[in-house]
Amino acid sequence: MTINGGGVTLMRGFAQRRGMVTYLLALCGFDEDETARIEALLAQLQSVSGNRWQPGDLSSADLVLVDTDSVWGHMDWLRMQGSGRHLAACSHARPRHDDDLAIQSPVTVVALQALLARAESVIQPPSISASSASTPTSHHVSKPFRPLPFTDNRLLKDSNVTTAVPSTGDVKSAPVASITASSNTSLGSLLHRGKLSTAFQITLQNQYLTIDPNTEQFWTDAASLKPLVPLLALPLDRCTRPDTEKLEALRKTKGQRLARLKWFAALIQTPGVLPSGIGATTVLHMDRWPEIEREYPRHFRIATALMRQPGTVNQIAQRAKVDETDIIDFVRAYQAIGFVVQE
Q1: What is the Cα–Cα distance from 206 to 221, expressed in whole angstroms?
Q2: What does the alpha-carbon distance between residue 333 and residue 112 come to, in Å, rounded to a whole number?
Q3: What's the fold here for domain 2-156?
């Protein structure tokens, strides 16, 4: 059985093999069609001699395969980093090294088999004693899984899974209605497209974000940009208009430049995808030095390469000695605020 909610896919495990360690694989961030296709590939491997992988749920899986090209998957990847979980990235970008726990999409059965073989060498299961050789054995990485705090319950319809959406607090302001976009459109997506026309606020747990396009400023209690990822993923129907007095009080304080938030929204949207109108042969350049966020040190090398000489994505990647995916994300983010332009 497969349950999809908030971009997280849970696959319930099947019967375990006898006499060998069995590993569990869970998928995260994939849409229903791609989930079904990868499940079918995994099923094909069940008949391969020596295969030790079975579908598992996210709470006990030995390996989590994450679609890092999707918005939900990218955020789940960021959240699970450093948690001790074994993660594998699935992206349209080619893995940098043959021994990386990464796979290029669309996934093939040969590539999946190779990925799982690499994962086995990393996970290192306990040895099986002779006395237990006749009984089913499953190797689990027992780590607690916490439901995503902003899961949309509408995605869990007809399932017995429920996830509470945190209250946004005692907000008496009216919902934002003048933004011409679907209520399911994420805040980050709208920022990336530059279509905000009115001030609004959004809160999640103990974190808040207020945006004012009129003064080109934003205010937040987050110490850096990365903690804002969950807020930017929330749909517009979670936004409210700030109280007039509160907004005027904020405007008297020094906020942060809205361009910085637009830059970050463009950076985390559609990782590995070039902006519309830019292709592999497009020559790009920068005519002025950008502000570099300390959380992204590679951007300094990329900006240096672009300032020195125009070039295509591939040429810039070679000069900066970084992966093409890093160049693509850099171009998308800095083009959104007017720093990267075409020759």
Answers
A1: 9
A2: 31
A3: Rossmann fold (3.40.50)
Q: Are strands 87-91 and 63-67 parallel, antiparallel or unpaired?
A: parallel
Positions of CATH 3.40.50 in the chain: 2-156
Cα(313)–Cα(27) distance, rounded to whole angstroms? 31
pLDDT in tens, 104-160: 888 998 889 889 988 888 886 544 333 343 444 444 433 333 323 333 322 222 333
Inter-residue contact 219 to 210 (CB < 8 Å)? yes
Task: Enter the DSSP assignment of 205.
Answer: T
- Per-residue DSSP letter, 206: T
The residues of the chain that CATH labels 3.90.930 are: 270-342
Q: Are 91 and 74 in contact (CB under 8 A)?
A: no
Confidence of residue 12 (pLDDT cuts 50, 70, 90): very low
| Alpha carbon of residue 264 to chain centroid | 13
Class of domain 270-342: alpha beta
> What is this structure's pTM?
0.48
Tell the burial category of 275 from Cβ atoms under 10 Å away from its Cβ (0-12, 13-18, 19+): middle
